[in-house]
Design a protein that fits this description.
Number of strands: 14
Order of helices and strands: EEEHEHEEEHHEHEHHEHEHHEHEEH
Structural class: alpha/beta
Helix content: 40-55%
Radius of gyration: 21 Å
Strand order of the largest sheet: 5-6-8-9-10-11-12-13
Low-confidence stretches: none
Strand content: 15-25%
Oligomer: single chain
Bound molecules: ligand C2E, magnesium ion
Distance between the termini: 58 Å
């Protein structure tokens, strides 16, 4: 790490390797093969190396094709949002929904976001996609009961647009959603890929009243300095920790530490990917504030949102009765 102007800058290295003559006989061919191998490293876990393989040509072509398809899908409105409820663990009441993008491909069926979001991020497509998701989610949430929030995922790439603040402010105005009801989910990747202007955009959004959550906490570098660099409203504990939560696992200690740090910093915690009663019980003991996962509901299409709200409202009544 380097200290530059008071900032700690960390750089990492990804390497693509091609070997002649089998991967290419000319300089151009070798560089192309090395480039493909590098591309493959960057598309997966960065900071490592890969040797060129023939299959990488196909991977690149598939990705290019997906990019073309995605561009058309956006124009043709083939993307939709599904909504997953987030519940208060203590009261069992719905506090809001997270909007999750879905691509209903005419031939391939449902394409998961884990596949198309990275492609959108590599091209500039994440910008129109992100704007669409934000507008659609705010528009829908504006029609829900006032005490329900809507969480929208933001890619680090969206913070490279100088218009992000304005777009969000304008979207709130146009859809009539109160800023306090919008929760933006960002991952710590944002601190690795962006600069000062990101923090200033986040601060302006907070001044506007929008809430900001740190998503997937525990997966990346999870540096505590990220928690200090911005006053997040919420930390979402990644499901990797939740899925392995057993009475004896070390994950208990980690979740407990995250809950304590969050409390001390005035942030709440949401556990992601809760699937079993046992996990729920442990999370209650650990003092987690909110939960989200298949145990309660998978993400549902917009038409099923009212019944999801009704289901948890009636549970609340049954509990009170
Ligand atoms: P995320 O924001 O961490 O979303 C949580 C993911 O966990 C969702 O996957 C959700 O369907 C899944 N999940 C929820 N409960 C459970 C559970 O109990 N068990 C298991 N195994 N999984 C559960 P999904 O919908 O496939 O989305 C994956 C990721 O794609 C999201 O992770 C988010 O990072 C990204 N994404 C989705 N929509 C958008 C979007 O509109 N914009 C951006 N930038 N990213 C998005
Ligand atoms: Mg999220
Ligand atoms: Mg997450």
């Amino acid at each position: 790490p380097y200290e530059i102007d008071g900032y700690r800058i960390r750089s990492n290295v990804s390497i693509g390797i091609a070997i002649g003559p089998q991967d290419g006989e000319s300089v151009d061919d070798l560089l192309m093969a090395a480039d493909l191998a590098l591309y493959s490293v960057k598309a997966g876990n960065r900071g490592t190396y890969k040797f060129y393989e023939k299959a990488m040509n196909k991977e690149l072509n598939d990705r290019r094709q997906m990019e073309l398809d995605l561009r058309e899908a956006l124009e043709r409105n083939e993307l939709e949002l599904h909504y997953q409820p987030i519940l208060n663990l203590r009261t069992n009441v719905i506090t809001g929904f997270e909007a999750l993008a879905r691509w209903r491909h005419p031939i391939k069926g449902m394409v998961p976001p884990a596949l198309f979001i990275p492609v959108a991020e590599d091209s500039e497509l994440i910008l129109p996609l992100g704007e669409w998701a934000l507008r659609e989610a705010c528009h829908k949430a504006a029609q829900w009961p006032d005490d329900l929030r809507i969480a929208v995922n933001l890619s680090p790439k969206q913070f490279t647009s100088p218009n992000l603040f304005h777009t969000i402010e304008q979207t709130l105005k146009e859809t009539g959603l109160a800023p306090e009801r919008l929760e933006l989910e960002i991952t710590e990747r944002i601190f690795m890929e962006n600069n000062d202007s990101t923090l200033s955009t986040l601060r302006r959004l907070k001044e506007l009243g929008v809430r900001v959550s740190l998503d997937d906490f525990g997966t990346g570098y999870s540096s505590l300095s990220y928690l200090r660099s911005f006053p997040f409203d919420k930390i979402k504990v990644d499901r990797a920790f939740v899925s392995d939560l057993k009475d004896s696992s070390e994950h208990i200690v980690i979740v407990q530490a995250v809950v304590s740090i969050a409390r001390a910093l005035g942030m709440t915690t949401t556990a992601e990917g809760v699937e079993t009663e046992d996990q729920q019980r442990l999370l209650t003991t650990l003092g987690c504030d909110e939960v989200q996962g298949y145990l309660y509901s998978a993400p549902v299409p917009i038409e099923n949102v009212p019944e999801t709200i009704a289901k948890w409202a009636s549970q609340k009544k049954t509990k009170a009765a």
